[in-house]
Amino acid sequence: MKKTKELSITIGWLYPELMSTYGDRGNVLVLQKRCDLRNIKCRIQPIDFQTPEKDIKAIDIVFGGGAQDRQQGILIEDLRKRKGTVLKEVLEKNIPGLFVCGSPQLLGHFYTTSDGKKLEGLGLFDMESRHPGIHTPRCIGNTVIAISDAYKVQGLPYRNTVVGFENHGGRTYLGKGVKPFGTVIVGNGNNGEDKTEGAVYKNWIATYSHGPLLAKNPHIADFLIAKALEVKYKKKITLKELNDTLMWKAHDYMLKTLGCL
After folding, report:
1. Residue 5 DSSP class
2. How far is it, in rounded angstroms, from Cα 163 to Cα 5?
3. Active site includes 210?
4. Spatial separation of the C-alpha atoms in residues 220 and 73, rounded to whole Å
5. Is the pLDDT of residue 150 over 80?
6. Dist CA 261 CA 250 (whole Å)
7. Is the peptide bond before 212 cis (omega within 30 degrees of 0)?
8. Fewer CB under 10 Å: which end of the chain, C or N?
9. Which of 42, 131, 168, 210 is catalytic?
């Protein structure tokens, strides 16, 4: 059995120069810090236009941040033609991933921008996203969603809630091939209509929650780390409990402020 100090994780960060809106870089920093506190070596691998397939195949967690319509239009061709096949391999190998705001829109069948341009997505998630137009109010505000026990890591603190902040113009509609990340308690969620928030397929989580998400939801960060280690080393590895007092205070303060606690 490998010692903890020998464990390592590589986080693949999709287009960090173009997709890092609303502090989404913080999600990568949270994962990196939580690995460091457990003596797990953590390396960040930027995935941009020049990244070869072999580097993408070597990642243990994939992360995609937010982006505006213009940035999504710039990278979508490269994502589809040069990254789509290898990302599908990563997904099917059960390697975990987190995608927030703009990046989930590119995982589905298509995304229609605010000016009516249709961007064909990767088709990895059975969903579609549409921006209803620049004159339609954006979905903005604090969010609380209810989640299941599927993200619980044995021996670590857990909440059946995820708190965050949404700011999106697009509306996402799920097909039968994916499940929602959670159910909306406070906020708009995917579309403001059906109470779904985010989408999940295998170990990839898509969500409109910013914040950054993981800074107030350590249980989701630990789920991603635990799954990455399990897939890489082909066995469950016990994670050391960290002192998350401040993170849980932030989480519970939002619940209390929004009338959910």
Report:
1. G
2. 32
3. yes
4. 29
5. yes
6. 13
7. yes
8. N
9. 210
Q: What's the length of the chain? A: 261
Rounded-to-integer distance, Cα 78 and Cα 68, Å: 17
35 assigned to active site: no
Which residue has 């170990």 as its token pair? 203
| Range 7-257 classified under CATH 1.10.10.10 | no
Q: Tell if the pTM clears 0.85, that is, is over it.
A: yes
Q: Which two tokens stand for residue 204?
A: 């990839």
Q: What confidence tens digit (pLDDT) does each residue in 156-207 have?
A: 999 999 999 999 999 999 999 999 999 999 999 999 999 999 999 999 999 9
Q: Domain map of the chain by residue range?
A: 7-257
Model pLDDT, residue 5 = 54
Q: Residue with structure tokens 């799920």?
A: 174
Rounded Cα gap, residues 239 and 16, in angstroms: 28
**For 147, which DSSP code?**
-
From 101, 139, 168, 251, the catalytic residue: 101
